[in-house]
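Discussion board: Methods & Data

I've been asked by a reviewer to show the raw model output for two of the constructs in my manuscript, not just the figures. I'm not sure how much to include, so I'm pasting the format here to get opinions. Each protein appears as its amino acid sequence followed by a line of discrete structure tokens. Is this the kind of thing reviewers expect to see in a supplement, or should I convert it first? Here is construct A:
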Amino acid sequence: MDNKEINDAIEQIPVPKEKVFNSIARGINQERDRGFGKKKRVFPIVLTTAAILGITVSLGFFNPTMNKVLANTPLIGALFQEFNDSIGVHLASQNAVTELNQSITKNGVTVKLTSAYFDGNMVSITGFVDEEVENGRNEKGEVSFDVNFEHNKGDQDPWLNGKSTDIRKVDNGYKFQWKMVYPYQSFNESFTLPITIHNINGIKGEWNFNIPIQQEENNIIVLNQEEGYLDDEVKISLKEIHTAKASSTLVYETVQKYKGDDISFSKAVDDKGNVYRFGTQKDFENSEQENGYHSTVRTEMTKLNSSATSLTFYPQLDIAVPKAEQLLNEKSFIQKNERLNLGLQVNDIVQNDEKLVVDYHLIGLPKNISQHKLDIIHHNLEYAFWLVDEKYRSNIDPDNPWPPKNHGIPFNKVKMIDKTTAHYQSTFDLNGDERIKDFKLENTILLFDFSTFVSSKDLKPFTVNLPLAKK
């Protein structure tokens, strides 16, 4: 990757405002769903505006037409509007939402499940929990569920991978919506989903429900078209589009040379000019074979227009590189990433009481960087470094990486020394909330993530003719 590509990539990386980060942090504190599932790349510091607004989940917007829809479904439709769920509103207008009335009281707390739908790739459950939940351990206004599906246990429950929870305060309690990515490769369009809530806000109870789930429509368009990119050493095979009542899903296979690279689509455009967006994705059948790393992916997309005869896909490649590692028994060293043509030159490491200061230069950045790009770099550097206890390095889960508790520090404060030479200092708080017990410099590994400075690379679009759908 040359300087121009790096320059363009850095320019594309968005920098959310401080208010947005604070809101995200509050949301994370209120509800930490378990089992986030496999993510090919983890960027704790780069969030797109679309992701923040939940566009990739709902894949739609509310407009005057929605108001007419709500007039026909004032109760259940209004509920989904509260949760900014346009798919739910569409399904409610077509009487494709199962209305429930299952209520259980345990230890003084009543939980009532009120609706369910299954459309394309997404299963939704809505419900209500009464205000007695405020007697639990959480702060007032916070509601957290310890829940499993299909009698699974703990974080190994596949329904928890990609699950989200939305909470709304109402009179006498809280409304909530769970959204789960359907976890299996083959679809069962009608089934009963057992749900067990183990505790709410720390209040134990075992609330057990059996919820009927039905997808009323799932037409399949078989594509079977392959596109290769020799320079990037990746290949895409489009397999099927499944079209439900309010959404569609795309199934495709990828082959890439480098482990961790992620191939997705920024959009698709049909022959009428309609633009389709893509959302939550689920990976299946990840394997290493002779010709590279293989994955089967199912991703949400806007509902396909029945009159479309072709689609032009706009693929993009997320380049993944392993974190550079250096044991801090040396105070100066150089780490380089040949694939990205970037480098880290550490000049000195100094420990002052409870602070550790790393002085360094970034090597290979484009010249004449704008202030906007410098702001991006400065922000990303706060998260690009990790300090990890050498003995606990193997405890980091490669699929969901995070430093082990009391044996890693994932944040630092950055100071620019000289912007013309990309000279910086990063200061780690050795006595902060994230720390390393019995810290010793010679037993600590510095990990540096070069990939935080490179965004997605656009690949050449390609067009697919659409055959007729089949049930």
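Construct B, same format:
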Amino acid sequence: MADLMTTTVIIINWNGGEFLAECLRHLERQTVRPDRVLVVDNASSDNSVASAEAFTNVTVRRLNANLGFAGGNNRALAECDTEFVALLNPDAFPDPEWLERLLAAAGAYPEVAAFGSRQLCFEDTGILDGIGDIYHMSGLVWRNRHGKRQRAEDLVPREIFSPCAAAALYRRQALVDIGGFDEAFFCYVEDVDLGFRLRLAGHKAMYVPEAVVRHVGSATTGGQGSDFSVYHGHRNLVWTFVKNMPGVLFWLLLPLHLLLNLVTIGMYIARGQGGMIFRAKKDAVKGLPQVWSKRKQIQASRIATVRDIWRILDKRLIPSKYNR
């Protein structure tokens, strides 16, 4: 069935260096080749996108400004007409059967709109980079099993809250119907926001352990603890909660979300990044009028019930982010 499905692989590049060409070489080795590979370059300064132009089956779009992961993907989605789109980071290197396995899962589970990969750490493939995103009822998000040694349970397919968009497959029409990525997010947590909105629209997400990539992770943004990632990640955490948490759950869980933000601020002050976390939260609050307007639209068209969302949230009183 997989060979009847049309797929575009989208790669958003920003100063990807040698990673981009290596990623494209891995795509050339796929047992099921995508119908199209579309590389969107976010005004890179390292000319890394020139390597993509050397591949005959790759379409390159050079943007005049850096629109982030969200904006770059939306530009790509606007010119896609395939049934599926697979998102792949330049520093994510897929095994030969990666796309075939994702498409096989899509054929087997027509009610699922998003499919996540088993991401392994590039430096040590015995360590997981993640097997899908977890959304805690407080609004905290993290990649399940990130940094943990792989075990037998990690090879079992399951429903997840949302896939990490570093290596994921989506039904294109589902993304179009919800308006694609929120470009105000720029990058970080934008894939969780997308996954949340897919769920509110009545869709589900699934982890496909047979679809394997080796992921370097935050290769061009200074790492997960950089000021850049702290700012965008912790600003966008607030917006994701406010936009998407449905109905009575929003008001019931809001005190917990506020507590999460206070604890987070304290943690980053202790790490010497107090200025950056204050800026992130200040800008999150400044953006709330626009976010609330988006919330009204999202909740007005919501198909999923409050019970549906409550079921998929991580509900432990203290998030076990570092123990899972």
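Answer (T.O., handling editor elsewhere):
This is acceptable in a supplement if you add a one-line summary per construct. For B, something like: The two ends are 35 Å apart (CA to CA).
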